């Protein structure tokens, strides 16, 4: 019977669960069921252990190379190199843990969602018990403000309204009716005879029969979905892993050539092993993890200043690669505040201005303010809105207007206040004579108040078709007239037209001399007043943000628990629909096989009335189509989809703790425009990562080719491991980090998103850094040969010159790496002051490594005189014009 209780009569539910409607379960029976079903808790996962995470880092190809080089250095008793390489490998492994470690706090948040206790009836007595002790069949008593502790079939209710937004996505409180028996396939949001764990009673009271506890509840089902979603590696991690594998394969080829050449020249095993260590240091961009972490951290801080909180560093870059973004409508695209926009009175449409619940704005008739005092029908409509309500509108100490109660009634109170009709003034000295509350079955509310001469006046609001069915007359410009069938058809047609524009439509009516003891006597022969249309208006910045998504090649898709017509209307208003785009409901999704959905998923831009399973299925289908998908959400039913998406984005204000913990990114202001701004930041982060990686590869290529050329020529290695580490980790790392701070190109958001399968430096993008590396390597190797064969110069001096030229040339080359094709002379040097500072500091560190005796003993360098430093500077500048000519060739090729 699991999840089918809504299709059963409440008496049948009592019978099947063996529950007495007055005494509840017997204590002995509840104890037996507790042993059988277990405690009413959501199971939490064990936190990840740091040990396996650390071991996983050392499956990375580049880290394995460093460890192998450290082991070889230790075998050769080169302890300084062994310790340096071992520590470097350990630091890079810890950095990987820092980026990857994230405890699964989403399931922990789900476990805290339930109520700590519940009031139940057992053995004929009412008392509080810990929520964990609830069992199927318990009778639970609920009042306003209570949080539901388990799933329940409603048995009795008095004006019961529930806030189910976190679970179903329904933004307004939902009325409950225990008498309903619903179709078995009814959507979760439509199960008006059920109560769900984690939801809150906003109004009224009720008695529920516990039908499911723990992991069998709807919240438990979502917890299981969350647990079943395996975390995936981000695109950046995948690309870096591929990059490392490619680099290692290339390195093996270079090492093989070098070792073969060494054996050809008769080098000893020890010499060959030292060459191997040197090549490993030259080939592995040792500073890459550190710089990548720093750039991502800085990007995260930038996003933080925009109100975007990132919990996983690689997620900051992944944002820039998304091709599809699934958007939850309420709160992200809309304000999550109901406001009246139209009135339809006496055949005329009136416009209502203003936003939110603040009574600021006007009621316009033909573009001019309408006067309720001079138009009786408008005055009656406002009076109905003010009095037919149990909600309060008040102004807080901060000056903001807020409501206490139902958002729909709050919008009507704000409307009345805009027309100068205040509930407090109408109620002054008068008490309501009777009230017949709204329910899911009645679909209307009536309040009886003193009217003219103290005679009872009934005021009614509710579903237009229901209210209209109780009316025999209508207010017209010519006075009160009978309602004809044509009039009814016209009114209902206008109501449907307003609903098609995403409005929540209510009908208004009244009756004078409303005598009677029950609703049937009072709510008859009423006078129709008109229609009021309200909506949760789109945020003003959303249409422009949607347009920016289109320009950037990102497809916005609305995935919501709201009704299809409402979602379609909002999608049209914000520009999210284009010719040929369609909408589909969760019920229609259930009819599609996975293959059928995969074939047509890109036609749909609106998915309405969907559950947690539907959202998960939609995200997975888009991903199977090769898209990189982001998903926004605020309710616990969004959490599995947020976890499944490549990037989960939670709302900071309206979002639940569960979604915030399941998501990689939290938007503080809940605005879709902030998400688009974060995408631009993500694209900038990726471009800067590619920029500094290009720069590092140039240095690694140059150093590796110098060592390979030396092995082939049969000369001693021009570069030793420790000086190479100093270049990789310090001298070249500082400009690389500054390149990671390069200002973002505003044209990035006018380009389409990169392919999720695109390599960071693959194909044509790898040609330029390789050629640059060849040019730098040639200059360094020729320098080494020239100095070594220039008379009295010894090997140490030649190595010092080679080391200095390589380090200085890399500092100069950093300026060429600011743009892939643009000339260094066309870029304002002061636009990135960090690079200027990094270049100056790197130059000082180079001089220190050569001129200071202590560092000279560590790195095996010897001081240079002024003339030699001038020669080093000239040789460092030599590759610049050659590389600029190469850029010019690439620019001309792209133009052609």
Brief summary:
The protein has 896 residues and is of the alpha+beta class.
Descriptive terms for the model:
Rossmann fold, alpha+beta, Calcium-transporting ATPase, transmembrane domain, 896 residues, Calcium-transporting ATPase, cytoplasmic transduction domain A, single chain, eight-stranded mixed beta sheet, eleven-stranded mixed beta sheet, 35 helices, 48% helix
Kindly describe this structure.
There is one protein chain. By secondary structure, this protein is an alpha+beta fold. It folds into four domains: 5-44 and 108-228, Calcium-transporting ATPase, cytoplasmic transduction domain A; 233-305 and 681-749 and 756-895, Up-down Bundle (Calcium-transporting ATPase, transmembrane domain), CATH 1.20.1110; 308-334 and 540-668, Rossmann fold (3-Layer(aba) Sandwich), CATH 3.40.50; 339-535, Calcium-transporting ATPase, cytoplasmic domain N. It contains 35 helices and 28 strands. Strands 10, 11, 12, 13, 16, 17, 18, 19, 20, 21 and 22 form an eleven-stranded mixed sheet that branches. An eight-stranded mixed sheet has the order 8-28-27-26-9-23-25-24, sandwiched between helices. Helix 11 runs antiparallel to helix 27 (672-713) and helix 27 runs antiparallel to helix 29 (733-739). The model has no long low-confidence stretch (mean pLDDT 82).
């Amino acid at each position: 019977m699991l999840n089918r209780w809504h299709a059963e009569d409440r008496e049948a539910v009592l019978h099947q669960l063996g529950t007495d409607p007055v005494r509840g379960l017997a204590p002995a029976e509840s104890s037996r069921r507790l042993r059988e079903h277990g405690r009413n808790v959501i199971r939490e996962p064990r936190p990840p252990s740091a040990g396996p995470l650390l071991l996983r880092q050392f499956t990375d190809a580049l880290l394995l190379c460093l460890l192998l080089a450290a082991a070889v250095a230790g075998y050769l008793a080169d302890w300084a190199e062994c310790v340096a390489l071992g520590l470097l490998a350990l630091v890079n492994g810890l950095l990987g843990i820092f980026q990857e470690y994230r405890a699964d706090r989403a399931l922990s948040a789900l476990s805290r969602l339930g109520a700590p206790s519940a009031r139940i009836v057992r053995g004929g007595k009412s008392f509080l018990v810990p929520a964990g002790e609830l069992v199927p069949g318990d009778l639970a008593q609920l009042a306003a403000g209570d949080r539901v502790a388990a799933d329940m079939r409603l048995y009795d209710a008095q004006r019961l309204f529930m806030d189910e937004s976190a679970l179903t996505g329904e933004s307004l409180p939902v009325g409950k009716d225990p008498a309903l028996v619903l179709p078995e396939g009814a959507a979760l949001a439509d199960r008006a005879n059920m109560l769900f764990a984690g939801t809150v009673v906003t109004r009224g009271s009720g008695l529920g029969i516990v039908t499911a506890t723990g992991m069998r509840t709807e919240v438990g089902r979502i917890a299981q979905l969350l647990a079943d979603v395996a975390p995936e590696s981000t695109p950046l991690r995948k690309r870096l892993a591929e990059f490392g594998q490619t680099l290692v394969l290339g390195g093996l080829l270079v090492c093989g050539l070098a070792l073969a050449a060494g054996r050809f020249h008769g080098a000893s095993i020890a010499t060959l092993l030292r060459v191997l260590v040197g090549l490993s240091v030259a080939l592995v961009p040792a500073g890459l993890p550190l710089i990548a972490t720093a750039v991502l951290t800085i990007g995260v801080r930038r996003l933080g200043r925009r109100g975007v909180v990132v919990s996983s560093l690689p997620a900051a870059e992944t944002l820039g690669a998304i091709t599809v973004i699934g958007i939850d409508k309420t709160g992200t695209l809309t304000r999550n505040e109901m406001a009246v926009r139209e009135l339809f009175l006496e055949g005329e449409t009136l416009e209502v201005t203003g936003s939110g619940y603040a009574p600021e704005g006007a009621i316009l008739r033909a573009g001019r303010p309408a006067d309720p005092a001079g138009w009786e029908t408008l005055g009656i409509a406002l009076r109905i809105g003010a009095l037919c309500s149990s909600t309060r509108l008040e102004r807080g100490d901060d000056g903001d207007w807020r409501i206490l109660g139902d958002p729909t009634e709050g919008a009507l109170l704000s409307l009345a206040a805009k027309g100068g009709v205040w509930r407090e003034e109408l109620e002054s000295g008068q008490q309501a004579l009777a009230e017949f509350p709204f329910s899911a079955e009645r679909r209307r509310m009536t309040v009886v108040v003193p009217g003219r001469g103290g005679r009872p006046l009934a005021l009614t609001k509710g579903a237009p078709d229901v209210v209209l069915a109780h009316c025999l007359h209508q207010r017209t410009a010519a006075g009160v007239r009978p309602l004809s069938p044509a009039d009814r058809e016209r009114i209902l047609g206008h109501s449907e037209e307003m609903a098609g524009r995403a409005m929540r439509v209510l009908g208004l009516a009244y009756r004078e001399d409303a005598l009677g003891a029950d609703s049937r006597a009072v709510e008859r022969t009423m006078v129709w007043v008109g229609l009021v249309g309200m909506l949760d208006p789109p945020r003003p910045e959303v249409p422009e943000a949607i347009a920016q998504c289109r320009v950037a090649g990102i497809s916005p898709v609305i995935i919501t628990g709201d009704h299809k017509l409402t979602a379609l209307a909002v999608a049209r208003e914000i520009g999210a629909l284009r010719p040929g785009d369609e909408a589909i409901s969760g019920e229609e999704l259930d009819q599609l096989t996975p293959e059928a959905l995969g074939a047509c998923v890109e036609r749909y831009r609106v998915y309405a009335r969907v559950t947690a399973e539907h959202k998960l299925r939609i995200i997975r289908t888009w991903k199977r189509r090769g898209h990189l998908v982001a998903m926004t959400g605020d309710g616990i039913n969004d959490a599995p989809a947020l976890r499944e998406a490549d990037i989960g984005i939670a709302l900071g204000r309206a979002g639940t703790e569960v979604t915030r913990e399941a998501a990689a990114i939290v938007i503080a202001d809940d605005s879709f425009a902030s998400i688009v701004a974060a995408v631009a930041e993500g694209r900038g982060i990726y471009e800067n990562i590619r920029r500094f990686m290009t720069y590092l590869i140039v240095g690694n290529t140059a150093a590796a080719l110098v060592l390979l050329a030396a092995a082939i020529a049969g000369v001693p290695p021009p570069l030793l491991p420790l000086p190479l580490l100093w270049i990789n980790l310090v001298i070249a790392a500082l400009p690389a980090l500054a390149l990671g701070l390069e200002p973002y190109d505003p044209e990035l958001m006018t380009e389409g998103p990169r392919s999720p399968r695109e390599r960071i430096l693959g194909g044509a993008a790898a040609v330029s850094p390789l050629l640059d590396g060849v040019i730098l390597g040639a200059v360094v190797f020729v320098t080494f040969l020239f100095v070594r064969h220039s008379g009295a110069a010894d090997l140490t001096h030649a190595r010092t010159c080679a080391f200095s030229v390589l380090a200085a040339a890399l500092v100069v080359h950093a300026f060429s790496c600011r743009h892939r094709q643009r000339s260094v002379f066309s870029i304002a040097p002061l636009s990135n002051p960090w690079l200027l500072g990094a270049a100056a500091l790197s130059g000082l560190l180079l001089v220190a490594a050569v001129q200071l005796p202590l560092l000279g003993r560590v790195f095996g360098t010897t001081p240079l005189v002024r003339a030699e430093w001038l020669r080093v500077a000239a040789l460092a500048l030599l590759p610049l014009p050659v590389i600029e000519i190469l850029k010019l060739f690439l620019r001309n090729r792209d133009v052609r």
